[in-house]
Amino acid sequence: MADNYNPYRPDSNGGYNEPMRNRQTPPPTPGERTQRSYPISEGCTPAPNSQHPWYGPEPRRESNGIGTAGFVMALISLVIGFIPYIGWLIWLLGLIFSAVGLGRRPRGLAVAGFIISLAIPLLVALLVVAFGLSLAAVGLAM
Predict the structure, then answer these.
(1) What is the pTM (predicted TM-score) of this model?
(2) What's the pLDDT tens digit per position in 70-108?
(3) What domain count does the chain have?
(4) If you placed Cys at 94, which of 30, 73, 133, 139 could pair as Cys (CB 3.0 to 4.6 Å)?
(5) DSSP track, 33-48
């Protein structure tokens, strides 16, 4: 090493680290993985056709919050739908939210909430008819 070595002043090759001046590493070939001196964070993915093999976290997955809300309200209305006004309000909100959620992606929970919300009145009508027929069979119907 030279007596006037200063790590903060560039050397003749433009580098700052004189002992590393003669070390030459070839660039990696495409698709080749190199050893890194830093940890790769979770969720990082390789960059296609890049000299920098890793870039930031994966993009967020799409979600349909309004469709999920419609599905949850449809399930809640199955449980408390017999309560006047409150159950009906939750059923109606579940039907509306699910219908709005059908226009967004992903649609899975919105479709399920819409089907459940449409099935509830049919189920109630079926139960009312069955109850009326059972009363008629016993002779209590007017």
Answers:
(1) 0.54
(2) 999 999 999 998 888 999 999 999 999 999 999 998 999
(3) 1
(4) 73
(5) ----SSPPPTTEEEPT
